Automatic annotation (TrEMBL):
Residues 7-113 form the Rv3660c-like CheY-like N-terminal domain. One of its GO terms (cellular component) is cytosol. One of its GO terms (biological process) is negative regulation of cell division. This is Septum formation initiator. SUPFAM superfamilies: P-loop containing nucleoside triphosphate hydrolases. One of its GO terms (molecular function) is ATP hydrolysis activity.
Amino acid sequence: MHRPLAITDDQDLLDDLLRVAAAAGTEIDVVGTASHARPYWTRAPLVIVGGEIADDLAATGPPPRQNVLLVTRAVNDPDMWRRCVSLGARTVLELPEAERLLVEELGELADPVTRSGTVVCVTGGRGGVGATVLAASLALTAAREGARTLLIDADPLGGGIDVVLGQEEAMGARWPDIAGREGRVSYSALQDALPTFGDLTVLSWHRGEPTGIPREAMRAVLDAARRGCDPVVVDLPRSVGDSESEALSRATATLVVVQADVRGTLAAAQSLALLRRHTGDLRAVLRSGSLSPEVVAATVDVPCAGVLPEVRGLAETLDRGDPPPLGRAPLGRFCSDLLSKLAS
């Protein structure tokens, strides 16, 4: 695979380009004179031309091609746009202001979209209805069926979804380690940093004072996941702040676990009124109770995605450090069927 090409004889600009390439997780070929660029010109997936060498390069008559960027450290130099047109470049990027855009351009080559990145958010219509267990079970089921899966614990007060998996001692980063990230993140780098078990990667919380998740960090993680895995399961708290809104806005579907009794249904109706401001496809997953699925679905005014099977001794299983019983067990079959419906 050919690498992006940088054509410049400005050492300061070259230093900037090498630093940006490193941030994007890629390497670039470098040519210091216009005459030496010709062999690389057509085969490089992206060509970055320094503004100081653009006229010399245009004088060599390079064949027209796409994905040429003119990059300069000069600010508001009107002559740069003339050089941009003469080269047939797509745009002019002024550094350092445009560094993030250049990281994005290089990052797309280093980490292209390979998966569809279906995002499924899971939350409870009220507390204690098992939304976290459902989120963990969906992610485990998807991974066991061969899908590269990311499970995101977005609830800092939930005790850690890694505990539900029996993996709280697993080595790897937690939210506080990456909460400062923004901009582009390589999914491979994210996966390397986080606890990973087969096809399942987990982003959970530490055992310390809870902190919030910045919107930019949630966006960076979800963008990386979109490029590298499918599905992404996000366990959300019942409140909706900036990071939760970011996840909900990207959700293919949002599952709300509803206890099928009067109080549970009324609480879920209030939660759904809030969620509708942030996301589109809402579905209820019911816990058995005194009300029928039809009555609950009509009351909360969202379609019913199914009724969760009751798992005898689930609390004891989790307390032993074992994950929820899946596979051919009723909960496993339920999750497999639900994932199939969400993918269709």
